[in-house]
Amino acid sequence: MTEFHVPTIDIGPYLVSGATARTSPDCAEVARRIDQACREVGFMQVTGHRVADSAIEGLAAALDEFFSLPLERKAAYRRDAGDNRGYAPPKSESLSMSLGVPPAGMMNDFYEAFTVGAEAGWYPGLDLPRSSYAPNTWPDAAPGFRAAVEEYFSEVTYISRVLLTAMADALGLDPGYFDAMTDHSIDALKMNHYALPEGEIELAGELMGMGAHTDFGILTVLWADQVPGLQVLGSDRRWHDVQPADGALLINLGDAMARWTNDRWMSTLHRVNPPIVDGRILRRRSAAFFFDGNHDAVIEALPGCYEPGQELYPPITVAENISAKVAGLKTGRAPAGADREAARVLAATAPSSAPAAPSAAPARPRVER
Ligand SMILES: O=C(O)CCC(=O)C(=O)O
Ligand SMILES: [Fe+2]
Predict the structure, then answer these.
(1) Is the C-beta atom of 242 inside 6 A of ligand 1?
(2) What value of ipTM does the predicted structure carry?
């Protein structure tokens, strides 16, 4: 069995300014390593990204400020399921239903989340549908939240665009190939908080932090606490634990990239187990920035990525794919056309490489607050 490994790539060369920097041998090496990671794993970690430590610390503090509010206060920031904005309480969503796979025990995921994203007004002059560009809700009960989240959002948007440039190079495409598909991109930041209330520990064996899914867009930049829980499905059909290295951001590919590349690059399945260390459930935070592309961009196999007649996916717009999957996770309505990934979830071998599954924990797990 080949060993599972999430490669670490220093993207610093792509952040050097100057007209010729992008054609440097250093950038070529970064692009080569990205291509290899995208073909073999679909996950990588990037260093040299220049997202300021203060922006990351601000984001973490914003999560704490908001999620430590009482549930009733947080619940005031719930939004209609179709908007994909605002607060989602614990056990209100099920990510595996984005693939039409019911969760084990039919219980929703235990994460709570707050989502912000691109608004129509960010792209003046365009007539954009509210369904993909809904206005944000900002929680006035957490006064520091908005400024910190906006700062992180803008930094990570920039890094996503740099990464897409490197990916275009890695795929041998013209510079700017993706520009027309990303100039009014639907981007969203989903901030997740995994914490089980004391009384519900008995259920821990059946609960998922977040069910198995692929991300829906082009690429995801994931910041997470260095706490176990995240697992990635390897090509060996086993779940592998993944934690970010110091200062690194995790990057994974979403459905659009798998469809563009006709599965040459992988939209890798991942999930979050209850974070357990020494029989104790730890609190865990993460923030997934989804760089999704224009709502009306048609996603179909890229030139050079398929032989005629070998296309694995029919064309679909970014918004059609995302809306169907968001409806699945929020309302339990299974999306059409997710059968390839759903089959991979169902084929995954049950035992994980996690040090201790909840049911096998030596002592009864308890929550650390
Ligand atoms: O919490 C994590 O590490 C993963 C979050 C995630 O996969 C998501 O929000 O899509
Ligand atoms: Fe995800």
Answers:
(1) no
(2) 0.99
Give the residue, out of 112, 222, 239, with the most ligand 1 atoms within 8 A of its beta carbon, to mutate for a pocket test.
222
Dist CA 96 CA 47 (whole Å): 30
Identify the helix (H) or strand (E) that includes residue 299. strand 298-299
How many domains, in total, are found in the chain? 1
Atom of ligand 1 nearest to the CA of 286: 1
215 lines ligand 1 (CB under 6 A): yes
What is the span of the domain harbouring residue 290?
8-363
**Per-residue pLDDT tens listing for the chain (369 residues):** 568 999 999 999 999 987 677 889 999 999 999 999 999 999 999 999 999 999 999 999 999 999 999 999 999 999 998 899 999 999 999 999 999 999 887 889 999 999 999 999 999 999 999 999 999 999 999 999 999 999 999 999 999 999 999 999 999 999 889 999 999 999 999 999 999 765 555 555 678 999 999 999 999 999 999 999 999 999 999 999 999 999 999 999 999 999 999 999 999 999 999 887 777 778 999 999 999 999 999 999 998 888 888 999 999 999 999 999 999 999 999 998 888 888 888 888 654 444 433 333 333 333 333
Task: Report the alpha-carbon distance of residue 243 to residue 254 in Å, rounded.
Answer: 19
Q: Is 203 within a domain?
A: yes
Structure tokens at 307: 């032989």
Tell me, yes or no, whether 3 lies in a domain: no
Which positions ≥6 away from 109 have C-beta within 8 Å?
A: 91, 93, 94, 95, 103, 207, 208, 209, 210, 211, 272
Q: Is 233 in the pocket of ligand 1 (CB under 6 A)?
A: no
For residue 14, is it within any domain?
A: yes
Which amino acid is residue 190, in one-letter code? K
* In contact, 279 and 363? CB cutoff 8 Å: yes
Strand partners, 190: 115, 288
- Note whether residue 327 is domain-resident: yes
- Closest residue CA from atom 1 of ligand 1: 286
| Atom 8 in ligand 1: residue holding the nearest Cα | 288
Q: Which CATH number fits the domain that encloses residue 123? A: 2.60.120.330
Is residue 271 in contact with ligand 1, taking CB distance under 6 Å?
Answer: no
* Whether pTM exceeds 0.90: yes
Q: Is 225 in the pocket of ligand 1 (CB under 6 A)?
A: no
